[in-house]
Design a protein that fits this description.
The chain is built from five helices and three strands; from the N terminus they run E-E-H-H-E-H-H-H. It has 107 residues and is of the alpha+beta class. The protein has a three-stranded antiparallel beta sheet with strand order 2-1-3. A hairpin with an 8-residue loop joins strand 1 and strand 2. Helix 3 packs across helix 5. The longest helix is centred in the last third of the chain and has 15 residues. The protein starts with 6 loop residues before the first strand and ends with a helix.
Length: 107
């Protein structure tokens, strides 16, 4: 059960080639309330389970960020996406995500 908190979350799949933990992020998100966002109603839920090979292979990691404002959570989310390039974040629009951090610095 997701915590009732704002924060950053990662959808993960088991991957023995990843170190130091055997998990690979396939999606990063930010939310004002995990219970509202990390559900089967999420717009990428089908992508998560397909990429993982089923719901039983899908894992979620939470990082509560109660002191961050929404804009700050989005910055963290964008940086994680730019660094790790998770497949489910990049499905529809791969190019802009790679440049978000650079564009933010240029502002």
């Amino acid at each position: 059960i997701p915590p009732v908190s704002s924060g950053i979350y990662a959808i993960l799949v088991a991957d023995a080639s990843c170190m130091p933990r055997p998990f690979r992020a396939i999606y990063f998100g930010a939310s004002g309330n995990f219970l509202d966002r990390v559900t089967e109603r999420h717009e990428r839920f089908d992508d998560w389970t397909m990429e993982a090979g089923g719901l039983e292979n899908t894992y979620v990691a939470f990082c509560p960020t109660p002191l961050l404002k929404e804009k700050q959570r989005r910055w963290v989310e964008s940086d994680l996406i730019a660094q790790y390039r998770p497949v489910c974040n990049l499905k529809d629009n791969p190019a802009p995500l790679a440049y978000q951090s650079l564009l933010r610095v240029a502002k």
